[in-house]
Amino acid sequence: MSQLDEHSVKVGSYSQALEQAAAVDFSAIQQYNIINHAGVDRLSRPVVVFNACNLPSSKQIDMNLLLQYIIVALDKVVESDYVIVYLHAGLNSDNRPGIGWVREVYKVFDRKYKKNLKALYIVHPSVWIKVIMGLVRPFISSKFAQKLLYMSSLDQLSQYLHVDQMDVPEFVRAYDKRANKDKPAALSSSVSTASVVPGRHSEHQQFGVALAELVSDNQPIPLVPRLATAYIRQHGLDVEGIFRRSASAQTIRVVKEKFNKGEQVTFEEYLDVHIPAVLLKTFLRELPEPIVTFELFDSIMHILDLPAEEKVEATRQLFQTQLPKANYVVLEYLMRFLHEVLLHAETNLMTASNLAIVFAPNLVWSSTHAASLVAMGKINTFVHLLISNVDGVFGSSSDGAGVQQSSSAAPADA
């Protein structure tokens, strides 16, 4: 009998599983670090990582409990477009889930999991996993099957997302090194500019550049967020799911290149409000240091443990005393803009919670480790607080910069 059998529950429909999970203690599951959050991919979609090597023996874990934990952990993440990375190395006959459980997962998962999943990267696939995927193929939709991508190495995976932001287990790194020791490194035209070293980029570079290099006393808001917010304000405030949907990867690459070359960018020519929405999130995530700086990460975690009535004032004091001026001005600009988006929630369905989920990974992250799902939940809560209490944190709009108006077309070196 499993050590956790006394906690086992019968998993029925998705809504039933979610309701039942509200009363379940998942500490026995969380300790294994089976699931974690790895920021966003190169199209600013949230990345969820499953570590097969951290799965305990099936004799030590209740698989129904694990399924419920997955549902609770991902329920909010999957409200918008997202991707999954499944690190297969380390799965063996002792900790391998049965095919019946895999089918149950697919059957129980709500439609939003399948609809909003844009890619499932299976890293280091074995013959077993390919056989399993072949066996379950008749039970899954053709659209879902097209989202499956096999990756033979972490280097190949890096073409699609930021592997350096993933908390990859040492077992997986060692396996990857052994399995690919004689293979050349993969090359990709989609490599992010996030690795650009400050001071060694072109004069027009906008992505992957330190914030201080993109602002001045005369123009305290960088070009990309200035143009993106202006266009969205004019065309996207009432668009359902704004900031939750992807855009053409090819178009995103083209527009980024135009920005980085100093060419004029006019969003009107693309007729897709999701392009500036994705680029705004991408710009923020590719900053060498987040807007809410690394130094403030631990303080933010502390603030979230304070009584509710103290959090806003503590945040205000933290930002006023420890956030660099350039960061403060840009963060205020963004939060006032997101509050403006929030005021249209009746039509765009972007509540403060939904906005926090999609923006939190692009505003706050640690310099030392990938965010666990628990930590990511706290970061979401913090960004929710900022959006909902913008005047309390930054003062009334008449006291600060507010949301500046701007033309949606300008040369990229303006």
From TrEMBL:
Gene Ontology MF, one: GTPase activator activity
tRNA processing recorded as keyword: no
CC annotations in GO: cytoplasm
Residues of the CRAL-TRIO domain: 25-180
Domain Rho-GAP residue range list: 209-394
One BP term from GO: small GTPase-mediated signal transduction
Protein name as catalogued: Rho GTPase-activating protein 8
Keywords on record: Membrane, Transmembrane, Transmembrane helix
Any Pfam family hit: CRAL_TRIO_2
InterPro entries: CRAL-TRIO_dom, CRAL-TRIO_dom_sf, Rho_GTPase_activation_prot, RhoGAP_dom
Organism: Capsaspora owczarzaki (strain ATCC 30864)
Record field: transmembrane: 119-140
